Amino acid sequence: MTSAQSLSGTVADAIEEQIRTQHLEPGDRIGTKTELIERLDVAPATLNEGLRILREKSILVLKPGPKGGIFVADQPPLSRLAVEIADLKAARLINVNDAIEVLDGLDTQVMHDAVRCRTKRDVADLEELRELLIAQWHTARSEEINWRLHRQLAGITPNLMLRSFYQNLVDYIMAEGSDPTLGVKGFDPHSDKRLDIHLALIDLVIERDDSRVDEVLTAHRMVKA
Predict the structure, then answer these.
(1) Last residue of a domain, one of 47, 75, 103
(2) Could you tell me the residue range of the domain that residue 168 belongs to?
(3) Closest Cα partner for 4 from 67, 63, 73, 52?
(4) What is the DSSP letter of 69?
(5) Cα four-point dihedral sign 130, 136, 142, 145
(6) Which pTM was predicted?
(7) Among residues 44, 75, 106, which one ends one of the domains?
(8) What is the tens place of the pLDDT at every residue in 48-81?
(9) In what order do the strands lie in the sheet with 29-31?
């Protein structure tokens, strides 16, 4: 990435931040190019590149004429979802535990798909993760490997929306570096029972045992993620 690209990306981020912090709605005016050049203290070419980035993301539109300027676009629903989640996180209204609850609701479809669609390569990857889980369960690496397992299971589903949503939530949880106890008094993230449940998830997929998915997932929810 060149310095010009980095600077234009910073401009795009600054305009997105303005939209979020000022709670601008579709159709709201952000300003003119001249106003933004002065406000952000950048060259016209840098601003134009930043605006191009945001136009490609359907975040803003440019309107010509005396009453024209740069306006917030009427974003597609999925784009609005991403912005709203970012706003909630910035306002500290959501946290890792909320993400884990959402994953709990998605686990059933993820597991049924994994049992139905797994390949020989998936089996090999899961067997490797099984060995890592057992070897590292009582170490500081256990949570990282545990979330890698969840990400791997979601990677098997042919439902690309489910896969993307699930894996991005896992990435968010891992990036936050959350307290492994999830703030739950008495919860032991390194318990043998919790390990056994995650090994059972692996076994269900390898053995294509769809009949016990709901039973194991119920136990999984009882000991958190």
Answers:
(1) 75
(2) 95-222
(3) 52
(4) E
(5) negative
(6) 0.74
(7) 75
(8) 999 999 999 889 999 998 889 999 999 888 877 8
(9) 29-31, 69-72, 60-63
